[in-house]
Specification:
185 residues; mainly alpha; elongated
């Protein structure tokens, strides 16, 4: 990366060797057996869930309990709150805490709340996806029976917001003789 230099200046060219540490390739079991902060950082970055983070936090709290390590504890706390947790749990409001023990307590309290929120969001997304598919089926069924549908009919079917209402319209659609008789509200 550094070009050859003219006479005598090569002695000033940097001679650096690098040691690549590919944290993803280090086995979790190997990291767990190490009692050092780099291994803890790698374990946190590789964590797959709150339980993994809790285990590493417990170790960090034990390792960094001495008063002289307060700044290091604070640095880990800041990194957790500003980098790791927001990356793992986007959009979640994180309370202001100042110590690893508080982070651990906050995670223990909030994980259940966040899990419920994620489940609810998943349910809502599933319902919306199901509604979209059911609307599409109804539109294709109506087009099969009555030919091209007026834009107003398409708009009203697209606006149906509950599965119950969509089922009622689908039920009526099987027995009507014209699209006008469908009575979309």
């Amino acid at each position: 990366m550094i070009e050859e230099v003219p006479g005598g200046l090569e002695q000033y060219r940097p001679r650096l060797r690098y040691c690549l540490l590919d944290e993803i390739r280090i086995a979790d079991s190997e990291l767990e057996s190490l009692r050092n902060l780099a291994a803890a950082l790698f374990r946190l970055e590789k964590s797959r869930g709150p339980e993994d983070i809790q285990r590493v936090l417990a170790a960090l709290i034990e390792w960094l309990w001495e008063p002289g390590l307060m700044e290091l504890r604070r640095s880990f706390t800041t990194w957790l709150l500003e980098v790791l947790i927001p990356a793992r749990v986007p959009g979640i409001e994180i309370p202001q805490v100042v110590d690893l023990q508080e982070v651990r307590s906050m995670l223990a309290e909030r994980v259940m709340e966040w899990t419920e929120q994620w489940k609810q969001e998943g349910v809502e997304a599933g319902v919306e996806k199901t509604l979209d598919k059911a609307r599409g089926v109804l539109l294709r069924e109506l087009e099969g029976r009555f030919g091209p549908l007026p834009e107003e009919v398409r708009r009203r079917i697209s606006a149906i917001a509950s599965i119950e209402e969509l089922m009622a319209v689908s039920s009526r659609a099987g027995s009507v003789s014209s699209i006008a008789a469908l009575e979309l509200s």
